Fold:
Amino acid sequence: MKYETVIGLEVHVEMATESKIFCSCSAKFGGEQNDHVCPACCGMPGMLPIVNKHVVDLGMTAGMMLNCDINRTTTFDKKSYYYPDLPNAYQTTQWFAPVCVNGTVDIKTSKGEKKVRIKQIHMEEDAGKLVHDDWTDSTLVDFNRTSVPLIEIVSQPDLSSAEEVIAYLERLRSLLRFAKVSDCRWEQGSMRCDVNLSVRPEGSDVLGVRTEMKNMNSLSAIERAIEYETARHIDAIENGTEVLVQETRRWDDIKGKSYAMRTKETAGDYRYFPDPNVMPVVIDDEWYNRIKETLPDLPEVKAQKFIELGLTEYDADQLIQSRALCDVFEAAYKTSGLAKESANWIITDCMTILNKKQMTADMLSISGKALGELIKLVAEEKVNRGNAKRILAVMFDEDINPQEYAEKNGLIVSNDTGKLEEVVKAVCAADPKSVEDYKNGKEKVFMALFGQCMKQLQGNCNPQALKEALLKELQ
Amino acid sequence: MDREILRRLESLNQLRLTEEEKEKVLSFFEMQDKEITRLGDIDTEKVERMVHVMPMNNVIREDVVNKVFTRDELQAAAPEAYDGYWQVPRLVE
Structure:
């Protein structure tokens, strides 16, 4: 018998805010244990949570990027949860009126295009970190991550293979990074995924027994886990190797196996109820439209615009890998009017510096306007390329005006023909042998003399003008 | 509410009730249940859903970091703390 796999995903994404969802502690990743903590996020009695407005902005942004309807009145609820990484013994989340509902994500796979339906997106707080410590034979609790804002994106069970799941997750990641909702870094846990999977005979409309694998944090592990679970389910159905039960399972990527963790809770077990401490958030037209207006183009729309400016498909594709690259490109192009040069400087020179600094494209934070000015200086032959690269390196560390910096540091190409002639004369006088050789037909020495002149001028001259001056001197 | 649901609730809430307490809880819920069932008789067709008990909304703040307490201050009253962590009984073997 042929079977089909039915998969729904719950994707957790940490939002790119400065502070936590219900208090003003830093939401930054890492830090010393319990350094980003206050009475609210460590669950002291009597503390009142206050919603971070930017969390709602980003929740709406995510929803709009995924074609969702926005709930204009959105509320928070308590979800019972007994574990010390959430000190209140509940998680504040959204159950009755999540911020976004009914969206879609378009994916492409080898089998063609597909629309994956989004059930809802809700905003909630993350849990802290537990260290199970052998030395003290106890569990140590770090609340730095407690109350860091998350959105959970819940899909309908529309996915049917590992390939589709990967395509969906990659698309989601690209859209959310583009809209600056999150950096979506799997390795830092800012994107994680719960995979709900069941198997049924092909064509059947009855769902099989569903299992859930929690907290998956790499695409390759997700792919392997889906393949393993699918095979396990089919084996159980066909050969009766085990009785499938609705449960939560843990994926061990090293062993390549999943293990039962606990019987799956039903929604009722969480005993959701409206959080009386968090007031409803009402999104008026002004707020809704403000967010709508700041939405970026979809990556493929941006790529098309870049191609129309004269970039190759390859260049455009490189730039849309990151919103930061697009932003710097657009500003550099606006200032310089030179599309191809702006793309080249970003794709080649900026990326080289980022790699050296072990930074990702998203971390490109130089001023696009300043880059545009630098490109203009090179195009107008006011600064040579070598010096421009040096100036660019400085721009990564300091906020400089390239023209002023070049002037201050003697990096402007000199148009002073008197100075050129002076240097040419001095170089020739200091090396009469080369001059003699040139005159006797050894044309190769020309480049040596040219190089010496260039060195004396510290590269700050128009090469054509120098060539002419040197030829004139040697005649 | 029956004994089975009560047993489930005990486990979810990590409670252990005595037989006497169970009887009390069951009779309390029975009474509640009657009251709640009566609410079903009210015509709420034209009543807008109440989203919150408080007549307030948009109690929100700007996304600004503000550090008010130090870790030591927060852990001063902790029953157990170790190396900057709150310390609790071991959860996994």
About this structure: The two ends of chain A are 91 Å apart (CA to CA). The mean pLDDT of chain A is 91. DSSP finds 15 helices and 17 strands in chain A. The domain at 417-474 of chain A is CATH 1.10.10.410 (Arc Repressor Mutant, subunit A).
